[in-house]
Amino acid sequence: AVGAAIGAAAGNAALGAEEGMVVVHRHTMDNVGCHTVEVSAHGTIPQLRIDDLKLSPDLIWLDVEGYEINILAGAQETIKRMNPVVVCERATTRIEQLLVTMGLKNVGGSVADSIFMKKS
Questions:
Q1: What pLDDT, on the 0 to 100 scale, is given for residue 32?
Q2: Closest CA to 3 of 46, 54, 67, 73
Q3: Distance CA 69, CA 91 (A)
Q4: What is the reported pTM?
């Protein structure tokens, strides 16, 4: 599964729509699932696109507090090339529309997750 932060060669990095720098906002230390990412020229964390990593994933699973659309925007070439299963927590209409343009369809879900697979 691919999460919001991955280990990059030079250290940790965030995933997003474009290369750049981001900052993590820690809203509470009691629940790290509530942290959010913001693109910022003053950020200290590099942001990479999945497409630039040249991965061959079978599955992309995102639970990233509303940042899913940004990560998916940076994974369009990979998704079109590899047709992985994509799982998103609380997928919005905007996320579903983007994935449909990449040849995926919503095939159901589990609790709060929506599962997308290649259209057959």
A1: 66
A2: 67
A3: 9
A4: 0.83
